[in-house]
Write a structure and sequence with these properties.
By secondary structure, this protein is α/β, with parallel strands linked by helices. The protein is built from nine helices and 15 strands.
Length: 335
Amino acid sequence: MIMNKTILLHKRPKGKPTLENFKTVDEEIPTAEEGELLLKTVYASVDPYLRGRMNDAKSYIPPFELNKPIQSGIIAEVVDSHLPDFKKGDFVSGMLAWKEFQTSTGKGLNKVDPKLAKLSSYLGILGMTGLTAYLGLMEIGRPKEGETLVVSGAAGAVGSVVGQIGKLLGCKVVGITGNDEKVKLLTSTFHFDHAINYKTSLDMKKAIKSSCPDGVDVYFDNVGGEISDAVLANINKFARLPVCGAISLYNETEVPMGPRLQPILLTKSATMRGFIIGDFASKFPSATRQLAAWLKDGKLRSSETIVEGFDNIPQAFLDLFEGKNKGKMIVKVGD
């Protein structure tokens, strides 16, 4: 009998997660009843924000339950349908469980067209990744031609798209990343004006000032921590700072002390705003159309790190915290 693998949250992590926090179990493949679909996972997204959901703490989204399946963005194939709006062979995207097979009522699922773009793109540049980059930058960053945009986590899924959009809008773009290979990727492939390796830079404040002699107008923050402290020391009057993530702090067991932000924000008349992509849900259709147009015209490049195999989903997630991804980290489960 073919079994159905499922990945559960086995233990809540203390600090950095390990493989011991996950457990893979075998279940029977479910049967789709009336009003249901049977879905086969094709691609699974792993994202830094999932770390927060592993804690038993109140946030903008409920935590994962112990010994229940973890969920993330999934591309799945419809293998059986008892719903009129879906047919066998359709591909869908949605927030689904880390299971090889699962049933769904269709709620929250969107059809995706493999003829318009490769399926993995709907988890990346044409999915939440691209929407986060575009809407966070446009709605909060509000970049203007000739301004300087700094992006941390710049070689990651969101950061690489933010920088490309900044260039399309006529900004000078500076990326911060963690190794020389990614520095080269940012400047050669994504056409950032400058890139800084924070791991080899002896003084990040000076490195940013050198790359941004006219100061920083927009800072798209994906990492938080000391890197962001250094950028804040270089912001201009009326700077805008979208806060998308804080991966450098997700595994801390104590609250680290940093510079007090109020004097900086006050004296620079700066705006810092955290966001989650759902804040801009009404703008998803128009944003997706713009991203798809840029992608079709070759103005945007999609960067992905594809890991093969359902069993490797937890390790791919852990690798995010080691910076082993270039662009969007995706696990390919099946054809």
